[in-house]
Amino acid sequence: MSGATEQGAESFERAIERDQRIEPRDWMPDAYRGTMVRQIAQHAHSEIIGMQPEGAWITRAPSLRRKAILLAKVQDEAGHGLYLYSAAETLGADRADLTDKLISGRQKYSSIFNYPTLTFADVGVIGWLVDGAAICNQVPLCRTSYGPYARAMIRICKEESFHQRQGYELLMTMMRGTPEQREMVQDAVDRWWWPSLMMFGPPDAESANTAQSMAWKIKRHTNDELRQRFVDMTVPQAEALGVRLPDPELRWNPERGHHDFGEVDWAEFRRVVGGGGPCNAERIAVRRAAHEEGAWVREAAAAYAAKQAARRDAEQGREGEAA
Amino acid sequence: MIAGDWPLWEVFVRGKRGLNHVHAGSVRAADAEMALRNARDLYTRRNEGVSIWVVEAARITASSPEEKDPFFAPSGDKIYRHPTFYDIPDDVPHI
Questions:
Q1: What does pLDDT average to over chain A?
Q2: Which of A79, A103, A306, B72 is geometrically suited to a Cys-Cys bond with A288, CB 3.0 to 4.6 A?
Q3: What is the value of ipTM here, to two decimals?
Q4: Are A103 and A37 in contact (CB under 8 A)?
């Protein structure tokens, strides 16, 4: 270790210990940088792919009000993806390269977005459960040790609160409707409940990265802690809504002060993460098509910028001669 | 400049009149005009700004974290620049 590296390592450890943030130009271990890039990129990809399941309902939203809300929400997901790509770039990652890794399947995104949205009730349930689970995961990330990531998460969390509330309000409206509408809501809850619990990742005993991420204060809570917190938060919301969560083992445990709940189907989780979910191929194909079909726009913008710059240079040259 | 290789622009947003512009993040754009529009769409979707600056990231000169201590050392030992350095009796008003 050179003197400068040794000094860098020391100030890195000290910053982590004192709960200070690591900033882009600080020295950091290669493994920390690698973990951070991987996590932020995966998070950014999830936001970008996450536009698709709900985006599918924009043209079929039942009212202008719902359409405007859904458009704003999907636009937010794009924004969240871009905040995060911006944070990843501070670590030396290149945005175009990250997009390439996503559409060639070399980097992952959250497995939740590989499930289809079959009815409009799914839009509400995604807001309530999927964004609710995301909030549980993301609130502690506002204090994560890497500064640009923590700052992006603060913006994202503020906006996610709108996402969750619009979803819950949508479901309350449907629950006040016809028996068929109430059935649609229950059916959507039945399909999304377990995948939502999978969003917290594998159980602690099988989570390879948790210990190091906790030591670096990237993560503040384990997967199982956050999953438990989500279940405890959601049960009273389900009661208020009048829906049943599809888990016969779900019940309050007064001794633990938490709800007990059944075992997640981890074989399904691994299958979906591994590419075998109902929509994996479609999600990547749509993202790839959008990227390829947008190539002429990127080329035109670059050509226009080059022409304007050349014209400006020529004008400045003439002014120089006149003087 | 090849397509997809747009430069990186740092974005600074003035939240409201009377406040400084504050760094918000970055965008990719082919030119300054596009960077401004992208920054507006990305960082002010909820009235977070009344004014935006964009500057090409490559044009920024920054102090280096490695030289942090020597670079800022000159101000470290000049405690007489702070008002608390001076003892004034408690019964002297308005000072």
A1: 95
A2: A103
A3: 0.87
A4: no
